């Protein structure tokens, strides 16, 4: 049996118990969570899920290691927002970790309910983003000790503007905030680059280390090569069995954000090129996915996880930083290169940028349709959903707007979500059959 499955059961078994004792015995809960995550990390190294392609197995390992390394020495970690470039922190030898990673791992352990309730008891509204609510609850219950530094940016989650300020006050931890303009011109890039330099100087002071600029340039060079590989891999996803699942989508996204610029992530992107080029052909439905998936819902897993009926072929969380038109700044100007990627991220600025990226993904992969997942409390996605849907529909890609929660089970109406997704997939199959019949008819007429 795959390591991820049986050691993951360790966390499943104790999840409710951990939630119950998160405030009364935070040290014990912290120890149990860390040991459970260590067991899962061991599994990804030594007993990987053979149902996944080799690059998928690597993505699972990277995601586990990026989070568990931070948790192993959280007092020497930096908590970031997922879109903030991580290369300066990696080059300094510290471990970046984000709200989505921490809360997602807690959700995998079925322990999110207690932490969400703890945050609400402190005055955080239940309508707040669940990822951030769980992170705040972990801090308020003292299951998370204070890290050395907090760093966030304005892309794209409005919770970033509130959560990090609150955590900085609670922990007494220095916080650096990067303001990202909507404009994608050179002035904006240089403005953000200067802020990233200032952030790095603050990190040097906080961690008591000097940045090796050559190490940073090497890191950014690996980043650019990794993102170029992602772009090259995109058309290879078309009509191929990717052995994907909803959890893997998040694991790849975490690898391509928290550990972007590492040799491991570059190797993963190179492995993807080989995996996809030699993957089996796929006759099932291909879906482009917007935002985070509810990876823990069994009924949706049966529809999408390593399925011959339907698969997620690409997501905007993974392809948000890819620059198809090329880049103006290379690794020889590392701060400008990181800033350009952040400014031109499809989540930054008006929603039509994100819609355009999803349309590009749909066309490149010949997707049958798209799912826009409106995660609980994410005003950015909820506000963009209809624009994204209409953009894709007008281009010929049927789109389902699905409301749910990618972190907190209590906010998911699983039966309704499963019914709607099942009906959508049935509609896509019928549509594909109609298009095939029309094509055959035209062929006979000629």
Automatic annotation (TrEMBL):
Transmembrane segments: none annotated. It holds the Pfam family HGD-D. InterPro entries: FldB/FldC_alpha/beta. Coiled coil: none annotated. Belongs to the FldB/FldC dehydratase alpha/beta subunit family. This is 2-hydroxyacyl-CoA dehydratase family protein. It comes from Olsenella absiana.
């Amino acid at each position: 049996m795959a390591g991820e499955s049986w050691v993951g059961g360790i966390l499943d078994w104790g999840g409710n118990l951990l939630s119950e004792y998160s405030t009364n015995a935070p040290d014990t809960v912290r120890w149990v969570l860390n040991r459970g995550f260590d067991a899962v990390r061991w599994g990804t190294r030594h007993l990987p899920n053979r149902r996944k392609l080799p690059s998928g197995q690597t993505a699972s390992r990277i995601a586990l290691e990026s989070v568990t390394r931070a948790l192993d020495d959280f007092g020497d970690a930096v908590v970031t927002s997922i879109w903030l470039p991580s290369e300066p922190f990696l080059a300094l030898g510290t471990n970046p970790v984000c709200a989505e990673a921490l809360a997602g791992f807690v959700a995998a352990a079925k322990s999110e309910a207690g932490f969400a309730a703890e945050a609400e008891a402190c005055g955080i509204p239940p309508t707040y983003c669940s990822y951030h609510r769980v992170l705040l609850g972990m801090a308020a219950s003292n299951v998370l000790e204070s890290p050395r530094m907090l760093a966030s940016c304005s892309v794209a989650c409005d919770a970033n503007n509130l959560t990090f300020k609150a955590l900085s006050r609670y922990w007494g931890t220095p916080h650096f905030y990067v303001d990202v303009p909507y404009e994608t011109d050179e002035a904006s890039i240089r403005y953000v680059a200067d802020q990233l330099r200032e952030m790095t100087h603050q990190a040097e002071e906080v961690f008591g280390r000097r940045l090796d600029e050559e190490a940073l340039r090497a890191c950014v060079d690996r980043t650019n090569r990794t993102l170029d590989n992602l772009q090259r891999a995109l058309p290879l996803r078309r009509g191929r069995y990717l052995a994907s699942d909803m959890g893997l989508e998040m694991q790849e996204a975490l690898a391509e954000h928290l550990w972007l610029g590492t040799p491991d992530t570059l190797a993963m992107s190179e492995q993807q090129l080989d995996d996809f080029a030699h993957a089996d052909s796929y006759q099932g439905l291909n879906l482009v996915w917007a935002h985070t998936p509810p990876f823990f819902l069994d009924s949706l897993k049966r529809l999408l996880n390593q399925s011959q009926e339907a698969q997620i072929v690409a997501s905007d969380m993974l392809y948000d930083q890819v620059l198809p038109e090329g880049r103006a700044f290379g690794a020889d100007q590392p701060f400008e290169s990181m800033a350009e990627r952040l400014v031109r991220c499809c989540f930054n600025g008006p929603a039509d940028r994100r819609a355009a990226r999803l349309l590009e993904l749909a066309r490149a992969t010949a997707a049958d349709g798209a799912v826009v997942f409106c995660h609980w409390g994410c005003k950015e996605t909820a506000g963009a959903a209809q624009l994204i849907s209409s953009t894709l529909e007008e281009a010929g890609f049927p789109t389902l707007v699905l409301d749910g929660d990618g972190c907190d089970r209590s906010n998911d109406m699983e039966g309704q979500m499963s019914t709607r997704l099942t009906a959508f997939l049935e509609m896509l199959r019928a549509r594909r059959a109609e298009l095939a019949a029309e094509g055959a008819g035209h062929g006979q007429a000629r």
